[in-house]
């Protein structure tokens, strides 16, 4: 069986190499992509969409369908994690509480948990004392990370970046908070329900923008139809439409990243995490 | 771009990929994949695909490494079945 697997991999590798020979060289001006597609985008992006970053306009405007379904794929990934992991399992048999004034740790069983107590603090089973330096430093950094994420989303028209990258950075800031403090504090601030709602809202913003174009009598995702609402002429409407769509992508990606992390790090229980 | 730098990046990518397959510890494999992603990000940047490099840095080297580590934490040294 092992030999068979190795043979298959070898065969696939050889086939890949043979067909990679047929590919045009990197940066070849004679290749089909460079003779047919790229010149059009390079010459017409500015007059079509008024977006200096060609990649952004190709992603969100010329190939809007592709990006819309990419966002849907990410939503599906979040839902798959949710459906696979988040099943109602047996309750955790015991919990650990720390009596703050004395520092004594108690193991409690049954349902007699001291809820909302001022002196008892819930602890994870694999609790290590939270490092003061790490938690404070993370608290200090997180606002800057989030502002940078917003910048990446908003500045995607002019520089590398856009909805996906900004959304991931935004999600990473919440994940950093969950790692540096604990999962329950993070869930208290950004609950699972919020994550689920936001991830669907993001995809809805994207698809809704496309559907709105249909209402204005244009084809799906042709943002130039939105000129009456967004203001400006039809070219600027495409630029603004790209921004609206990028915001939708960012919201969806942020929420899905956080949602997947919650489910993965706590094995679906969303109680004791990393 | 200086071709020596490209060569070093490429060699490191191949080393990371091989090590991630060969290493017997799952946590090391996850971290090696993170290093691989970061080197890939450098390779994209060298080739001028800045947007792809940015995505690789955030998604590949950042979040997916965290996901892998979070998943590895729920495994045990020996299988239970």
UniProtKB/TrEMBL annotation, chain A:
<keyword id="KW-0812">Transmembrane</keyword>
<comment type="similarity">
    <text>Belongs to the CPA3 antiporters (TC 2.A.63) subunit B family.</text>
</comment>
<keyword id="KW-1133">Transmembrane helix</keyword>
<dbReference type="InterPro" id="IPR007182">
    <property type="entry name" value="MnhB"/>
</dbReference>
<feature type="domain" description="MrpA C-terminal/MbhE">
    <location>
        <begin position="32"/>
        <end position="89"/>
    </location>
</feature>
<dbReference type="GO" id="GO:0005886">
    <property type="term" value="C:plasma membrane"/>
</dbReference>
<dbReference type="Pfam" id="PF04039">
    <property type="entry name" value="MnhB"/>
</dbReference>
<keyword id="KW-0472">Membrane</keyword>
<feature type="transmembrane region" description="Helical">
    <location>
        <begin position="241"/>
        <end position="262"/>
    </location>
</feature>
<feature type="transmembrane region" description="Helical">
    <location>
        <begin position="164"/>
        <end position="183"/>
    </location>
</feature>
<feature type="transmembrane region" description="Helical">
    <location>
        <begin position="140"/>
        <end position="158"/>
    </location>
</feature>
<keyword id="KW-1003">Cell membrane</keyword>
<dbReference type="InterPro" id="IPR050622">
    <property type="entry name" value="CPA3_antiporter_subunitB"/>
</dbReference>
<dbReference type="InterPro" id="IPR046806">
    <property type="entry name" value="MrpA_C/MbhE"/>
</dbReference>
<protein>
    <submittedName>
        <fullName>Multisubunit sodium/proton antiporter, MrpB subunit</fullName>
    </submittedName>
</protein>
<feature type="domain" description="Na+/H+ antiporter MnhB subunit-related protein">
    <location>
        <begin position="134"/>
        <end position="258"/>
    </location>
</feature>
<feature type="transmembrane region" description="Helical">
    <location>
        <begin position="67"/>
        <end position="85"/>
    </location>
</feature>
<dbReference type="Pfam" id="PF20501">
    <property type="entry name" value="MbhE"/>
</dbReference>
<feature type="transmembrane region" description="Helical">
    <location>
        <begin position="195"/>
        <end position="221"/>
    </location>
</feature>
UniProtKB/TrEMBL annotation, chain B:
<feature type="domain" description="MrpA C-terminal/MbhD">
    <location>
        <begin position="11"/>
        <end position="76"/>
    </location>
</feature>
<feature type="transmembrane region" description="Helical">
    <location>
        <begin position="30"/>
        <end position="47"/>
    </location>
</feature>
<dbReference type="InterPro" id="IPR025383">
    <property type="entry name" value="MrpA_C/MbhD"/>
</dbReference>
<keyword id="KW-1003">Cell membrane</keyword>
<keyword id="KW-0812">Transmembrane</keyword>
<feature type="transmembrane region" description="Helical">
    <location>
        <begin position="53"/>
        <end position="73"/>
    </location>
</feature>
<keyword id="KW-0472">Membrane</keyword>
<dbReference type="GO" id="GO:0005886">
    <property type="term" value="C:plasma membrane"/>
</dbReference>
<dbReference type="Pfam" id="PF13244">
    <property type="entry name" value="MbhD"/>
</dbReference>
<protein>
    <submittedName>
        <fullName>Uncharacterized MnhB-related membrane protein</fullName>
    </submittedName>
</protein>
<feature type="transmembrane region" description="Helical">
    <location>
        <begin position="6"/>
        <end position="23"/>
    </location>
</feature>
<keyword id="KW-1133">Transmembrane helix</keyword>
């Amino acid at each position: 069986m092992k030999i068979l697997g190795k043979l298959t991999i070898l065969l696939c590798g050889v086939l890949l190499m043979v067909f990679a020979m047929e590919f045009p060289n990197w940066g070849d001006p004679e290749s089909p992509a460079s003779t047919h597609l790229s010149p059009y985008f390079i010459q017409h992006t500015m007059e079509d969409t008024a977006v200096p970053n060609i990649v952004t306009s190709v992603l969100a405007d010329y190939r809007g369908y592709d990006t819309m379904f990419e966002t849907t794929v990410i939503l599906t990934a979040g839902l798959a994690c949710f459906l696979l992991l988040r099943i109602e399992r047996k309750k955790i048999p015991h919990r650990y509480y720390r009596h703050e004034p004395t520092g004594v740790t108690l193991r409690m069983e049954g349902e007699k948990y001291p809820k909302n107590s001022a002196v008892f603090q819930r602890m994870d089973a694999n609790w290590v004392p939270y490092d003061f330096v790490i938690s404070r430093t993370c608290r200090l950094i997180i606002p800057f990370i989030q502002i940078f994420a917003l910048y990446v989303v908003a500045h995607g028209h002019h520089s590398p970046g856009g909805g996906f990258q900004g959304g991931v950075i935004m999600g990473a800031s919440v994940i950093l908070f969950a790692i540096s403090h604990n999962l329950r504090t993070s869930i208290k601030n950004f609950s699972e329900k919020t994550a689920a709602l936001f991830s669907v809202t993001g995809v809805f913003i994207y698809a809704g923008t496309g559907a709105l174009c249909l209402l204005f009598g244009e084809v799906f995702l042709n943002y130039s139809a939105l000129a009456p609402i967004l203001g400006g002429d039809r070219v600027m409407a495409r630029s603004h439409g790209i921004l609206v769509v990028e915001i939708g992508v960012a919201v969806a990606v942020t929420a899905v990243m956080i949602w997947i992390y919650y489910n993965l790090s706590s094995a679906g229980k969303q109680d004791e995490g990393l | 771009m200086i071709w020596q730098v490209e060569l070093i990046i490429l060699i490191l990518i191949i080393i990371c990929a091989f090590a991630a397959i060969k290493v017997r510890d799952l946590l090391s494999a996850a971290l090696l994949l993170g290093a691989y992603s970061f080197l890939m990000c450098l390779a994209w940047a060298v080739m001028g695909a800045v947007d792809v490099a940015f995505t690789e840095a955030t998604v590949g080297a950042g979040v997916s490494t965290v996901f892998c580590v979070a998943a590895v934490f729920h495994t045990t040294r020996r299988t239970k079945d």
